[in-house]
Amino acid sequence: MAHKEDFLQERIQHYDITAYDVVPIVEAMRHMAYSARDFYRAADIYDRMLRDESCGVILCLAGSLVSAGLKRVFADMIRYRMVDVIVATGANVVDQDFFEALGFNHYIAAERLKVGADDAMLRELHIDRIYDTLINEDELRVCDDTVRAIADRLEPRPYTSREFIAVMGEYLCQNHARTDASMVLEAFRNEVPIFCPAFSDCSAGFGLVSHQAARGHDPKVTLDSAGDFHELTRIKLKSPETGLVMIGGGVPKNFAQDVVVACEVLGHAVPMHKYAIQVTVADVRDGALSGSTLKEASSWGKVDTTYEQMVFCEATIALPLIIGYAYHKGSWKSRTSRRFGHILAAQA
Hints:
This protein is an alpha/beta fold. It has helices at residues 4-7, 23-29, 34-51, 66-79, 90-101, 119-124, 137-153, 161-174, 183-190, 203-215, 225-238, 250-257, 259-265, 294-299, 315-329, 340-347; strands at residues 56-61, 85-88, 107-108, 127-130, 133-136, 158-159, 194-195, 222-223, 242-247, 273-280, 303-312.
């Protein structure tokens, strides 16, 4: 008979951009062709963002990235002032990053599990699968309950996802996070706002629906998605020159791009995003947002085309090269922290 512990043994190891100097590799790609040259140009554009003193950098995260071994990359980007704002899916923020900060882990799945033939057995064992990664479902329920406990202690009113995630970071500080690399924790410490436009589409949703159901008709914590949009628009107004680093597509991509139009709707003329790179495996031919090119976004008045680059590659391959290149080039050392989270909280 199979037991849960038989499958949850080998932990995912998170990539450390500080450990490997990839600059010579990426710069060699400059003289190559196809995707190699795209990699170099994307890395160079990101480095330009960091060298541009007027540029605020927005990181957009879609897909299951933290569980795949990229948690430390994102935490280090915050720690080393390589990003000023994050827009992410709830899975990356709550189910994966916050989950690991509570002391839990993601595990490497055996090769045979990837085909899905054993998924019914995994379900019986309360093990969830993300392609070749496994999670203990019972531990995810602890994560859900923790979100509910945080909501139960808050004043019952509408909160932006940025506000609620900051409270989650504060919780980790007060309760001694079980990891030295957490995006939620580092964002709280460095006052980097994290927005999650579809916040209920993750473990936070289970925790919040439990909170609301228990409150019945009494006042309760709610989420203000329009408030999210307004806050990110205010950031664009305070930092007109902006650069996008987009991993995947979907809601985070569109949410960040749309603030240019939102500023115009509010009567403010602002420049399009000056820099933009996107790493995606989505196809440009099916008309979907995740694969739509940055040049297409220019037709909507969202992204300038001088410094833009699409990289059609899977994120766990691309990010160690692109972010590692910028880290070891060292432009972040002279950057000033924007601390947009502090500015938004002070104006709330």
